[in-house]
Request: fold
Amino acid sequence: MGETKRYRGPRLPRRRPVVEAAAGPGDDPLVPRGVEVAAAWSWRLLVIGAALLALLFLIHYFAVVTYPLIVSLLAAALLGPAVRRLDRLGVPHKLSALLVVVLGLGAIALLLVFVVSQILNGAEDLSTQVVDALDQVRTWLRDGPLGISDADLQSALSSLQESVSDTGGRFVGYATEFGTAVGHVVAGAFIVLFATYFFLADGRLIWAWLVRIFPRVSRDRIDSSGRVAWKSLTQFVRATVLVAAVDAIGIVVVALILKVPFVVAIGVLVFLGAFVPLVGATVSGSVAVLVALIAQGPFVALLMLAGVVVVQQIEAHVLQPFVMGRLVSVHPLGVIVAIGTGVLLAGVAGALVAVPFAAALNAVVQHLAAMTEPGEDPRAAAARDPGTPDQAQGTA
Reply:
């Protein structure tokens, strides 16, 4: 007989030893990995956002100083090539900076004197034309399709006069605010004047001092990024001046052909308005149309409007793609977002500064992205950067 097998009960699956994964630093088995990553990003973004808000608050709080310094940077970026050209001719560097600043200030003063004299000479004739235009408008409102009676017009004028008289009580407060604003403008003008000179004369020393504030491991990267940002800012300012000059010359030529008064004043206004992207040229061009309407009538105003539109179309479809597109590679959507953000933060001054800041930031981002490979150690990438601030200053 065969041997009887002993019954040992049901066969259970063999248990495998549980091997726990080594927990990394900060890993929590009760929190999903995605939540940990999102939380890490969130608090870092909150800290960065708080730092940016604090920086913007300080810039706005000390606006009397910070805004003139920003304008000085733009002026130095514009005048820098002239200083370097004088340096190549053998003129001492500090003397070159002084000559460029004095000549630039003299050109601005001469232009302002010419504009003011033209306005004063034509103010009397323009005031007479304004009175005649208002009489024509009143006649059209009374005899035209609206059929407004003299009593209604007189009532409207009386209401306007009462509102003006009510505002007169607050004139002292307005005058005080205006005087304070004038004082800030005068102080800002002096800051712009002196800061522009020192940026041109000692810009390399100032930048080298700023770079030394950062840790040693990141000084090379900060130095190269700053030089890229400055080059982008210089190209942007030069391109903007070229576009503004073409706008001003085109509209001045149209105004001369149509014999519109205040030609030089209109040209200066258009030139300055072109520094505000997208809207500045339109607003300044509308002033030219309004002057043509008052001085020459509706037909000449329509011709002036057509000339302004033609000049702006040439700017938008010829100058902007070939000049701005080549020198400053910022997408139009980025320009719109930058302008909107600048207006919300600092009004007109923010709109002036937003686009050059966006251009410089875009250049820095592209520069850093090209220098660092995906997954590369930042210190290893920084070690490959040629030159240091001290070496760059010595070889410049």
